[in-house]
Amino acid sequence: MKNIEDIKPGEKIDYAVRITEDMHHDFLQLSGDDSLIHTDKNFARANQYKDRLGYAFLTTCILSKIYGTIFPGGSELCLKQECNFPNPYYVGDDLRFTVEVLNKNEKLKLLTVMTVVENQENAVIFRGQAVFQLSLCK
After folding, report:
1. How far is CA 95 from CA 6, 16, 33, in A?
2. How far is Cα 73 from Cα 68, in angstroms, rounded to an integer?
3. Coil, strand, or helix at residue 2?
4. What is the pLDDT of residues 30-63, one digit of tens each?
5. Buried b (16+ CB within 10 A) or exposed e, 16-51
6. Distances in Å between the alpha carbon of 18 and those of 7, 52, 57, 90, 121?
7. How many Å apart are CA 83 and CA 96, to the nearest integer?
8. How far, in Å, CA of 79 to CA of 61, rounded?
9. Is CATH 3.10.129.10 the classification given to domain 4-134?
10. In 21, 62, 79, 108, which residue has its Cα 20 to 30 A from 28's Cα atom?
11. 118 in Cβ contact with 96 (< 8 Å)
């Protein structure tokens, strides 16, 4: 858990994860989203995709893990998260999450970050700013 005083604008962290079949299935079970674009390879191919698409909002679940356990690491309340999904990804893709500090306000304990998620081909599959309020005490 980081104190806002220890966080510097421009600071970055990277986190990598492979989207497994189990993760995909667990998200389907949790969300109830059984859309054919996510569950049927033939449907996905008929719609010009090479395979079933990964769930866009599974990436935001991974962000929750990053924000809550890695950076800033459990000392924050997420006030805002913008989500843009410019490209799809597929089950089995390797995703790289990069979180960069854009701004901080020590007095208000506010931290603004930009998160970009890329697949193994460096295609951006997620981009969005988040604003956190860090805890006032530990």
Report:
1. 27, 6, 21
2. 5
3. coil
4. 999 999 999 999 999 999 999 999 999 999 999 9
5. ebebeeebbeebbeeeeeeeeebeeeeebeeeeeee
6. 28, 15, 15, 10, 13
7. 16
8. 16
9. yes
10. 79
11. yes
